């Protein structure tokens, strides 16, 4: 990501200028009344928007352990009421319970 060596001499520099609007470059000045020289210190990164991963290792939601599901049910009280349904419908794997209403594992995800 960064260059291996400095693109500018580090010792005789009198002034460094880093700007938030130009995060990949640095401006330097060799003398107090000299002109500013610009150097690129980071390689440009190419970001491809909308590109999806090639291989998905799972489809749908991954079932949570029952203990984690119970913790989320306690914490959902701090979430807005209209968003609490998401946490109620999370799939989880029960711990030895035979009641099918308590286990919310999606049958489609098990295949």
From TrEMBL:
This is Uncharacterized protein. Residues 92-111 are annotated as: Disordered. It comes from Popillia japonica (Japanese beetle).
